[in-house]
Amino acid sequence: MAKNNTPGAAAVPQHIGIIMDGNGRWAKKRGLPRSAGHTAGAANFRTITKYASSIGVKYLTLYAFSTENWNRPQEEVSALMRLFKQYLEEALRDFMDENIRVRFLGDVAAFSPELQALIHRVEEASAVKTGMVLNLAMNYGSRAEITRAMRTLASRVQKGDLQPEEITEEMISASLYTAGQPDPDLIIRPSGEERISNFLLWQSAYTEFVYMDVLWPDFKPKHLDEAIEKFCGRNRRFGGV
Ligand code: IPE
Ligand code: IPE
Ligand code: MG
Questions:
Q1: Ligand 1 centroid from CA 34, angstroms
Q2: Whole-prediction pTM value?
Q3: Which residue is catalytic, options 5, 21, 71, 185?
Q4: What percentage of the chain reaches a pLDDT higher than 90?
């Protein structure tokens, strides 16, 4: 694991987001159904999560299912739901030994009661963990997240708890699913697509982006190292000089 080209712990960004994209194309290249790509992608989710934790990442946010992904064919959505169930059951056994705390970003109420129960069990069982926070963005869309935050603040205004001019950026951040967490330092998108697809819009105001020409099931720990190296070579100015 500790190769010479692995950036030192101090250089590892504290919060990394990954848009796990390219499963469908990975399967298509092999003449397999798209669901086979999701199966391969899900197995890789486990590998990359463990690797990120081992190199000292503090927060890892993985985009697993967007609010727009419901528009896919029913058969593909069902295959994804089966994989979520399988991997969350596995997480209950496996990640529990890893000191990883799992949290969910998104409207989980849209999932089946069975999957929701599993989500709550994983969250509860890992709440005592003190290591890396793994955020799983499932039925997540940044616009839906911001809309929800606006509703929360608007209802406080309606009740008279809050004046509109008292609303701050911090209050908005605190009303998002990522409340209390630092903004992502680095967002990686494999698959060759160069877009954000409704991921962490508010939180990524000053995030560094690395787009990589590798499909998610082929994304290896060395690709994470490579993205971190690119990140380390960037000069973040946050609007300063
Ligand atoms: C990402 O891979 C997985 C999900 C969005 C759930 P895709 O399924 O989008 O793969 P491509 O982009 O079609 O190759
Ligand atoms: C983004 O990938 C969502 C996830 C990886 C979960 P998509 O494949 O859905 O995004 P688009 O359609 O290429 O923008
Ligand atoms: Mg895609």
A1: 8
A2: 0.95
A3: 21
A4: 92
